[in-house]
Amino acid sequence: MAPFPITGRFIGDFVPHLVAVDTDDTWNQIARKVALHSVGRRVPEPEANTEYDVFVEGTLMTPDATLGELLGTRTLPPLQWVDVGFREQANIDV
Asked: Which residue among 3, 9, 32, 33 is buried most deeply as judged by most CB within 10 Å?
């Protein structure tokens, strides 16, 4: 359990955000933390509740995996760029 800063961008928003996450956070939790800054502000809220997908360097992350698990297999620098999008729209231009 350790704090880890990322740069999060919600697909469709032009503003990236510095987001504090934890190495024990799942990618679902990280997605919600990034979406909080964009959805309902500069990105319209969807009609139905939806889940999000997270991409790191173009690779789709498994929703229930943790950031710590990824850090155990590869090096990620602090402030790593992370893209988040609505699950049904996340495959567009990441």
From this structure: 9
Q: What is the pLDDT confidence band of residue 90, given thresholds at 50, 70 and 90?
A: very low
Residue entry with tokens 């939806």: 50
Q: Contact 79/72 with Cβ under 8 angstroms?
A: no
Residue type, 85: G
Cβ atoms of residues 5 and 67 within 8 Å: no
In sequence order, the β-bridge partners of residue 22 are 3
In this structure, are residues 71 and 23 in contact, taking their beta carbons and an 8 Å threshold? Answer: yes
pLDDT tens profile 53-81: 999 999 999 999 999 999 999 999 999 99
Task: Classify residue 45 by its DSSP letter.
Answer: P
Residues 59, 76, 25, 15, CA torsion sign: negative
The C-alpha atoms of residue 21 and residue 34 are separated, in whole angstroms, by: 9
What span, in angstroms and rounded, lies between the C-alpha atoms of 37 and 33?
7
